[in-house]
């Protein structure tokens, strides 16, 4: 093949070396506009996974790199005058200039053509004369920007300013310095990369940057540093640098990180690699790591597939999910640092745990494996400060199977007069199994089994306040006396046979009503028997598919408000412990809140205060009808995931309004308001909204959204991102999810109670043995590639070991 690489950074050089090593007949040229010795940046961090791939693909490169790596295990978090250390992390870093020299030397040895101080011809020109063009020209890729529409370029400029510096101070660990200044909070990310130097990244929110008097310098030429800013940073961080140490600039100037995303990475025979295709914030690792992993996969795909077209498709298919996962983690991390002042009120141990788990990749269990003493210390603090009196967690590491270890998810939590035994909630999930609004045996078994399964609170599906307020004909209701009696049967079972609480979620479908059950066509109108739907404005959910709703008059709004209050009184008589008002997912109350669905010009429309007027009137009526000692929560959609819709800032204001009206907690969901939404799906993807609401308002929150493991629950609770976690699908998969979470963590105690008839099953069933003795005589492959027999002596093991 004839291959051109635009860009002589680590990704482009490594790809060229790999391809030339795979087939010396390839003609490969690398174009680099800078001189060979020009290098910008300082240390590069590579993961063990990346290094393993390098070792397998090119042992010569791996050997040269590993001989010069700076390695360390600890992370030191400097916060409020304390240094909190977490160990067992494992990092490897190398000087970026040295990395480039190693890769250039390898390319030269293999016969790759290297053209320095050479601006590459346009990618389209190269594509006409080459079999493959690899654009590894960085985050500001000319290739990508020239063909932005073809690649589907999306640029997200973030809100922090940062400057990449070096220092002659050699850190002995990865350092996070959280510095309180008169201007606001600043942070330093520092790590060693050689025997005499460290990377020193200064970062702060743009408002802090402006308050500190920093400015952009458009007058700087390429390669120049902002020496005035560097001098100011030396003064600001003199306590970190210590006597005699300096900051070292290298093309150092204030930048705002831009997350690059693209819809596709290839266009004909031109392919993007590394930062040209995608960027990930430096707080979770190095863009060099992603670029070198891209290079490995691209080379392998070209080697394994016939034809460039098939190879590029295979490359993108393999790498895109990995990169998307990394970008989600990076997004969570960069947003955490953007909002760092929301967390600086936290106690130092909780703050440190929160910082370490910010990306959702490092978790509670992961940290317990890496550094059990650190997690035990945070556990001890949490146990001593949890909402109700309980024995403290141990101050020294406890093995995972120790009964003394009480995971955070099994501490109680109080809402008004209701004490929940743990932090697990069975989320409200529509079952579409009622008859004329009446719950039956299915609901008894469904909710009863979840209550027996160990969760502290079991929520009903949305229970509709009127027949016209149902989503489908099979939705449950609480608007007739026989509904009340049927629900009493369920609550009586839960109270008689379990120590769980049971909550009811009441709502009205609004414009999303009169549709088929989910498995027959979600949000599709009924084939017959439709009833009229209502909304704040006459806007159908799907134009041309769903009905145009009737715009509610003030008198009709009063009538619906009274229906909510009547349902609340019925819920009280039916024996529910908690009531939740459904103001999410595009149903009636939610559609009043969103500007996408509320176009009214009267007192119930307009600005957010006007759009909240009717939901708050309903809340007040329900709160008055519901017993004062029992809690009320409100479920909201924190964002509509559509431009022009409800935002995270709005969500804080909405939560604060309901809290001021008497809500005891906010159940924080997102979306489902419009079919045009584009959610940022991913693990625990909705939890940052709960975190923000909790941090900004102080009101307890219930987090939802792809929380699937007890590790996630423990991480969220201990980090202080939420107070309760609601899980839906995991409880459908396993009604005893909470009991099994306790068993798998080796916990038995007041946070979870096995029903007496179930106690014989409270230990994981035994499986077949997998620990039998290995053969004493093994055939292994020797250095001469001949099969030889080796006799290995092993001590005999007793049956009990």
Automatic annotation (TrEMBL):
Gene3D superfamilies: 3.30.9.20, Aldolase class I, FAD/NAD(P)-binding domain. It comes from the Bacteria. The lineage of its organism: Bacteria, Bacillati, Actinomycetota, Actinomycetes, Streptosporangiales. Residues 131-327 form the FAD-binding domain. Residues 409-742 form the NADH:flavin oxidoreductase/NADH oxidase N-terminal domain. Residues 754-801 are annotated as: Disordered. It comes from Nocardiopsis rhodophaea. This is Bifunctional salicylyl-CoA 5-hydroxylase/oxidoreductase. InterPro entries: Aldolase_TIM, FAD-bd, FAD/NAD-bd_sf, OxRdtase_FMN_N, YqjM-like. Pfam families: FAD_binding_3, Oxidored_FMN. Residues 771-788 have a biased composition (Basic and acidic residues).
